[in-house]
Design goal:
14% strand, two-stranded antiparallel sheet, 3-stranded antiparallel beta sheet, single chain, alpha+beta
């Protein structure tokens, strides 16, 4: 009987000894660890350079310019990839970039 009570008693005492109230509280004003990475804001394209002007909501709920061709054929500000059909994507995530536009030819 002594050994069957000994182990739970020791574990309980250790738990009490090392537990500190609020140790796992998520109060941003007291957080001292490394900050999580932030996603950089993408530059908005100049609409006058683009032939198409659509937008969509990405998986984060952010409005993103749909892939578009430019009048000059050069990458516009904020473009993240060139698609197989010659359009430029402004996608903020790799998944799904240039879908229905021939896939990604190159990342910018």
């Amino acid at each position: 009987m002594r050994t069957s009570l000994f182990k739970p008693l020791v574990l309980g005492l250790l738990a009490i000894a090392f537990w500190t109230p609020g140790a796992y509280a998520l109060d941003p004003s007291t957080y001292q660890g490394p900050m999580p990475p932030t996603r950089p804001q993408t530059q908005q394209p100049d609409e006058t350079q683009l032939q198409e002007h659509g937008h969509y909501r990405n998986s984060d709920g952010t409005s993103v310019h749909s892939p578009a061709h430019t009048h000059s054929g050069q990458a516009p500000a904020g473009a993240t990839a060139k698609c197989g059909d010659g359009s430029f994507s402004f996608s903020q995530h790799h998944r799904g970039t240039c879908s229905r536009h021939g896939g990604v030819v190159s990342w910018l």
